[in-house]
Amino acid sequence: MKKLNHTFLALMAAGLCSLPPAAFAQTAKDFEDMRNELKALRAELNALKAQQAQTPAAPAASASAWNDRIEAVELKQKDAVVLGDIPGSFRLPGSETSIRVYGYAEANMVKDFKGTAPGDTFTNLTEQPLGDTRSGKTSLTAQTSRFGFETSTPTGIGTFNTKIEADFYAYCGSECNRNRLRLRHAYGEYAGWLIGQTWSTFMDVDNLPETVDFNGPPGATFRRPAQVRYTYNNPDLAKFQFAIEEPTDGAKGPNLVARVDKGFDWGNLNARLMSHEQRIDGASKRGVGFGLGAGYKLTGTATLMAQYTRLDGDGDGAYLVGANYPVLDGGTVRLDKSHGVVLGLTNAFNDKLRATVSLGMVRSRHKLGNAYVNAYGAEGNHKLYQWHAGMYYLPIPNVELGSELIGGRRTTFDGQRGDMLRLNLQARYLFN
User: Fold this and answer.
1) Which residues, in sequence order, are CB contacts of 244 under 8 Å at separation 6+?
2) pLDDT tens digits, the chain, 432 residues: what are they?
3) Residue 6 belongs to what H/E stretch?
4) How far apart, in Å, do the first and last CA atoms of the chain sit?
5) What are phi and psi of 61, to 5 degrees?
6) Mapping DSSP to helix (H, G, I), strand (E, B) and coil, where does residue 373 land?
């Protein structure tokens, strides 16, 4: 795997180095200058060809000079790089494909004042140590740095889009080096169809509050499965999406998701449905999920966000972060029945400073004595809540500094508690 990662990075570097220097122009003016140059070259080429066609037969030497000039203009035209069709992109020489290279280098420092959950640098409230844990640790990481490529190619009946994105936050357990390449997104999109890996159709990305903490609040969906999705967008009605998604390990059938989104002048609304299979040692049970989301523009700079998710079981803990896992009870699969709520308020004070506060909550409907709790264990999570208060400052273009205070509590079925309090500082250096 390590050798493969090195090979991939070497190929990517070689590909970038092979691009003409003009491809790395930093400003829109640079690209516009190149666009104008290309237009001038095309005009010159057309004029040369027209003049050649209208000129009576010339001596061989003159004809050769004509052809040399035309060839020189054509070669220069092929090498010209102009602004692409998607923001921050450039047109691949000799093609109609626009490509955008993007990403950032990021460093995080995390200081825990109350306990540190095992197995992760960032918040992991579901495994927060119970009892009075005053002392915590300090962590530093750059694992969340990322890079990606986007392309857009016009066709006769629409635009074909692709995306590949990776970071270095691959989870491999607490005993190994996590600085490994991890695939985040990889898909193609054409005529309403999306095939590949990206955010789950069940995830409400639009109404998810921004956090400095990489994991974000519990109570939301954070999943990027492989999927086949179809989108039908009627501007006068709504946007409808239907998807089959990668199931949890062992399931025989895919997860099924349906969704509808509606935008308004004041914000947005969405509703989501999901059916998923949970399988343990050959036994299975199908659960359902339901979600609602909304965003409301309080002012021109402030937005209020809310989302609600109800889910029966979650084998990988990603369709509802904070839900308990399914368990096998005497040959019967029992599912946790959980509710999740996420609230957020964001405000941009100016083009350099913004702030976000958010609250995430998860509650299981089961109690002590319930068949599910008896099979799962009394230390399963009955209630979780976690709050974030963050500020983001851009001192210069392409540099973003973030700070965030995070607090939360985990309560088990038998009433034990585990509290967390931490500070997260972040420096992010963006390119494109």
Assistant:
1) 227, 228, 254, 255, 256, 257
2) 444 444 444 434 444 444 444 444 444 555 556 556 666 766 776 777 777 677 655 555 666 776 776 677 666 655 555 777 788 888 887 788 999 999 999 999 999 998 788 767 899 999 888 887 766 788 899 999 999 999 999 998 889 999 999 999 886 655 555 678 999 999 999 999 999 999 999 999 999 999 999 999 999 999 999 999 999 999 999 999 999 999 987 788 899 999 999 999 999 999 999 999 998 888 889 999 999 999 999 999 999 999 999 999 887 888 999 999 999 998 899 999 999 999 999 999 999 999 999 999 999 999 998 999 999 999 999 999 999 999 999 999 999 999 999 999 999 999 999 999 999 999 999 998
3) helix 2-18
4) 29
5) -65, -40
6) helix
Q: What would the two tokens of residue 274 be? A: 């999901």
User: Do residues 97 and 155 touch, judged by C-beta distance below 8 A?
Assistant: no
DSSP 55-102: SPP--HHHHHHHHHHHHHHHHHHHH---B-SSTT-EEPTTSS-EEEEE
Paired sense of beta strands 193-197 and 267-280, if any: unpaired
Q: Closest by alpha carbon to 291, among 244, 362, 339, 230?
A: 339
Contacts of 149 (CB under 8 A, 6+ apart): 99, 100, 101, 102, 162, 163, 164, 165
How many C-beta atoms surround the C-beta of residue 173 within 10 A?
Answer: 7
- Distance (Å, whole) CA 188 – CA 197: 9
